[in-house]
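User: I need a structural model of Galectin from Lepisosteus oculatus for a docking pre-check later this week. Nothing fancy, just the predicted structure tokens so I can convert them on my end. Input:
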Amino acid sequence: MSEVCVRNLAFKAGQTMKVKAAINSDASCFSINIGHSENDLALHFNPRFNAHGDSNTIVCNSRQGGAWGSEQRESVFPFQAGETFKVYITHNKDSFQVKLPDGNVVTFPNRHGDDMYNYFHMDGNAKFVSIKVD
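Assistant: Understood. Predicted structure tokens for Galectin:
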């Protein structure tokens, strides 16, 4: 398991975050989290190879005050164990758009509605390589 946590990262509406990571060859899942803290996440992006009863499914959710919201499941799954990937997360005022490695886009509502988030966290079966906000 590889874990990265960045605080005081200004990710504002209108910006795009590029995340690059290498997936473990025996991966079951990994997650990318954006919000204000671990208990206050505007976006929980969780590709699951085989975890929590899901297989080759992307699960998105949000968390407020430690309570999870309703999960959104995506059947598009362009991730491969043992490979390096890049995703581009665009923060719009009303949603997050995650451009996947194959060009498909997953849209998840910005349930918090905030213009800026300063917390980035990634963990699971992937090794963090880089992050860039434009």
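Before docking, keep this in mind: DSSP finds no helices and twelve strands in the chain.
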